[in-house]
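(Structure overview)
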Amino acid sequence: MLRLFSRLHFAYLGLFLIACGGIFAYQALYVWPIERCEAQGLWWDPQDHICATPIPIWRITGRRPDAGAASRPASARGAGRP
């Protein structure tokens, strides 16, 4: 009886250690990088696991938000419409 009881203890201890290791690995690989990235004000890409810098749309389009309607082309302002 004592031998079976000690084997059962070792089995539970091993299962507990594997579960603790799995939880630690999940935290280290998934949770902590996301928290570090968002603490810096960056964006986390969950598909590729990349911490990226957000790019404002005006850098892509070349149109600054403070430029107003004067910087838009005439067709966008509605010029030439009856």
